[in-house]
Amino acid sequence: MKKVIVLLIISASFSFNIQGQTTYQPTWESIDSRPVAQWFGDAKFGIFIHWGPYSVPAWSPKGTYSEWYQRWMQGRNLFGNGDFKGDEVTRYHEKTYGPHFSYYEFGDMFKADLFEPDDWADLFEESGAKYIMLTTKHHDGFTLWPSKEANDRGFAWNSVDIGPKRDLVGELTTAVKKTDVKMGFYYSLYEWYHPWWQNDKERFVSEHFHPQFKDLVEKYQPDALWGDGEWDMEAEKWKTPELLAWLFNESSVKDNVVINDRWGKGIRKKHGGYFTTEYESEAPEFTKPWEECRGMGFSFGYNQNEDVQDYNSPKTLTLMLVNIVSTGGNLLLDIGPDSRGRIPVIMQERLKQIGAWLKINGEAIYKTKPWNKSFQWSIKGKQDYKPKQHYLGGDFILKQTIDPEPGYGVKELFFTRNESAYYAISPKWPGKSFTIRKFKPSKKAKVTLLATGEALQWRMEGRNMIIDMPAFNPNRVTEEDYYAWAFKITK
After folding, report:
1. Which N-terminal residues, if any, form the signal peptide (predicted)?
2. pLDDT digits (tens, 9 = 90+) for 259-272
3. Which of 54, 127, 389, 399 could be 355's S-S partner, Cβ–Cβ 3.0 to 4.6 Å?
4. Residue 53 DSSP code
């Protein structure tokens, strides 16, 4: 009887066809039973790309998203980090372009004439990222590929018919697939000002969203899909369980594609594929693979209003990556190219700096899992300092590691592991020695400083492992080594 009950439960979630292939049903129970491909959990570092007509004005107040330009401008509202009246973007737009200049005129001004997809792909490889997520359509509805559904609002609104006159999704996909980097697509379910979305949501879902989504998948065969813009309507009205069942049963990427958790109101961190956070920190409570996304500053789209001090330092970004990986997550770090297709130099520099650190220390990051503890806090001081912000700025990780607020402790060490070794990562040079509390390695364990390859001496004092450091020689290390120091402890 117990076996019969178990089989009935399983069959309610999914069934098998005659070849033994799993057939997923349009229910969250069935969709959630599909495992997330291992490559995603192994990847640890990805690159987000926000690029579209909003890259032409490329402006919003500091602490806000510039890719929301149309909504800020037409809706006369604004939210983010700061105290806003709400009409800041509207006033900027009218002063710069005039009161009668439509957002849709930016489509023709979005030229992408300097876009070199192979150069982008080379940069992504050099950064150490294992996947990218290109915004193929944001909430303004403009598509970076020749989508007929993009034009059903009554005028051309895609990158082939206007503006660049190029298939930007296709070109970048071709370039990236020449490398070992996985190709993913961000796709917004809703569109702020599409007439069907505003007046006939059922028609929008059936005649616009579903066929457009399927066209994107079948035309370019992505490795990952990142839904967004789902929050205004329940999944049942979006009919996303049916759409995802098609994706997993019938599409050309059914066996390998990875999805996130943004497929309907109230679905995030509950259903779908991997879970997502946005401008948050670590998430040790998740039992599924997860990913934190954020920009190098506060905006995802390029924001010319941000200055160099608004961009996180390479050390900050590296420590954020280490912090996230130590709790089992991935960092999806955003870049915002300009309207001509150039990645701003400071963004290129940050990616190259992270890549240089990963080239030496990547074995402590890629294909790792958390220890039974993700980090070691100092003995004294309160833990887990986080400022109260709408979008959590990157400075929080510096306050938690090298620059604590009065009364707060710090994360002295971060931990990861793989099948052959443990890794301890220190935010700063430990001095003459450092201690891993309540940890007993194998008696034959070897300890190595990854930055130099030096073998280090270690000993036990009670339940604690003491690792002796070599004399510091600045000539043996690079600038990137100072971001964080990784130590390998063999099993």
Report:
1. 1-20
2. 999 999 999 999 99
3. 127
4. G
